[in-house]
Every structure is written in structure tokens, then in C-alpha cells.
Design goal:
Blueprint: H1 11-15, H2 18-27, E1 30-33, E2 38-41, H3 44-51, E3 56-57, H4 66-69, H5 79-86, H6 96-107, H7 110-115, H8 117-133, E4 136-138, H9 139-144, H10 146-156, H11 166-174, H12 183-209, H13 215-221, E5 223-224, E6 227-228, H14 231-262, H15 264-272, H16 274-288, E7 294-299, E8 303-305, E9 308-310, E10 315-319, H17 320-323, H18 358-375, E11 380-381, E12 400-402
Parallel strand pairs: 2-10
Antiparallel strand pairs: 1-2, 3-7, 4-12, 5-6, 7-10, 8-9, 11-12
Amino acid sequence: MAIDTFDPWSAQFVAHPYDAYARLREHAPVSRYEPTGQWLVSRHADVSALLRDRRLGRTYTHRFTHEEFGRPGPDPAYEPFHTLNDHGLLDLEAPDHTRIRRLVAKAFTPRMVESLRPTVARLADDLVGGLLADGGGDLIAAVAEPLPVAVIAEMLGVPETDRGLLRPWSAAITGMFELNPSKESAERAVTASIEFSEYLRALIRERRAAPGPDLISALIQAQEGSDALSEQELISTCVLLLNAGHEATVNTTGNGWWALFRNPGQLDLLRRSVDELLPTAVEELMRYDTPLQMFERWVLEDIDVAGTTIPRGAEIALLFGSANRDPARFTDPDRLDLARTDNPHITFGAGIHFCLGAPLARLELTESYGALLRRAPGLRLLREPTWRPGYVIRGLEELLVEV
């Protein structure tokens, strides 16, 4: 059933938001959405430009108090979540963002990411081997979810016995990024924030006493002159690496395989030409069914977007899923084309908040898809999946397959 109304709490809309996006792009490319009080921006050119526009910010507290900005302060009951979130790169602006990103980049280098390739390949191969041994199962639970968690855990030096803690913490914390989260979601996020922070605080103490070849040790040692990351900045950085990298990679894997099963001609083509097509295929799957559908920014001063004035104090919702299907930028955007080379998707964002973990995500996706395509060439879908209720971070409940 075609859905042409923007309704992020509707299961039908979450399953297929693209008709509504097309209607927005054509009739209301910049429009106020009263249920959340946000301004929706749906065209690729506008979204891409606003991601780079310094008149917008992920926060406003670097320039204004809550009172000056006309916004209530955060609920004190949720302080542990806000402390964790507000010290991470995702929700910081210059100069704090500039300083922390520069320090993190000293430890989280392209060379370090590339050095992980044998580890990622081994983990992906082991997980696919388990799926084959079982004759199939839930592709998300068996491969998509455990791979990025295992990779991040290896990077951070989290003991294997503790890795089962990470996924539930991540899921609870990222629940706060949905539109109008419930009180129950907020309480789960607070509990997870406290528990995850305390766990990392103990791990950081161990690494200070006995540094190892892991990312936490490297982050502790990252310095520029007398400047170094504070303990809270270390904790928030580690949590962000798990949450941002993990959720996006899981959903790109699940959403991507669902797209391939719905486009058997493209899947057959990929199976015949894995080595040649895999790099462009990964980019196209990220564009086609974007894991992060919406990215929000605050308006720090009045701004004109496509002829519409949006006042200071407003919140803009940049619709990544719509921008990545904009026919003004992509040829035949509703067609899955794994050989697409002109593909400036914005799945990783742009500007100063461009995803720091993009190289790692691409590595994980390449190894995951490659292992499945090579070792399970007869992979088949058992039944049509259902979508999780979340819209902002959009993914499947499960994806049942047989080999």
C-alpha cells in the first residue's frame, strides 16, 4: 500500500517512507511538522548544504543558554544520559568538537582501521560459518549484530566474556534518539548510561595502569601539547564508537540484504561479480535504504532554505532517506543499481560531523557481504521481514534465511 503522508509512528510508513518523501520533495520541500515542532527538509541539495552550514548546530549551548534560546533545559532525572551524550563528538560544536575530534583522530587513524582488516575478515567468516552450520536462521542475529560489536570490543580491548553487555546498552541508549521517546525509553537509557559509564571507567583505570595495544590505551595517550581527553570525554567517545558504528552497520546489513532479495537480478549480478561490484554495491545499499533516516540540527540564527525562512531557535530535521532518493541528484533513484558510480549519498553525513567511523563501517560491510556472497551463494529468504518500530534509526526485527 502506498503511503504518501509523513507519519514516523506508523508501521506502514516506517516500512516504506519513500512515497511520502517523494510528495514532500515535490510539494513541500521545506515544511513544518507540528507533531514534533520540527522543520522537515527533504531535497538532496538542501540537506547537503545544511549539513555544512555553521548557522546550524547539533547543540546550541556553545552560544546560548537554554533561556536565551527559548528552550527548556534537560530533565534532571535524565542527567546521566545527557552527561554521556553531551561529551561525545556527535552532539558537540566548535571549539570543543574541533579539539576532541583532533585528539581522537590521533588514535583512531586510517592505518589503525586498515590493520583491523584480517580481524574483521576472520570474525565475518566465523559468523557466516556458524550460519551455514545451522542451515540458516536470523541473518541479523547471526551475522549483522555480532560483527560490529565484536570489532568494536576488540578495538577497545573489552574482554570476550563481557561483550554480551554491549549490545543491550547500545540499544537502550540509542532509543533516546527516536522522536519523542517515552518515559520508559528514557529510563532505560539512563540505566544503560550509568552502567556503561561505570564499566568503561573501570576499564580506563586498568589501561592507565597497564596500557595495551587497544584503542582505549591509544585514546588515553593521545595528546596535543598539554591537552588530552578528560575521563568523561574518553567514556563518551568509546560509547559513541559503539553506538554510532554498531547501529548503522547492523541496519545497513539487514536493510541491504532485504533490498537484494527484492531485486533478484541485482543479487545474481553481484554473486557473479563479487570482487568487481562489491565496492559500488556497498555504497548503493547504503543509499538505497539508509539506516539513519533523519539527522536533527538547531537553527542558531535565522536562515533561508529554498525560499522559506526558518527562525533561530527552531529545529530542522534533515531527511537523509529522502535526500538519498532525490531524482534531482540520482538517476532513477528508486532503482537498486549496484554498479552505480555517481553516488554522492549522505548516509555518513557531511561537514564537521561527517562520520569518523566511515572507513571502519565500509570495511565491516565489505567483509560481511563478501563472506556471505562467497560462502553462501544459495542464501534464500524464508519470509518477508517486519520493521522495528523506530523511524530515525530504521532497521528490521529479523531476516530469516536458509542456505
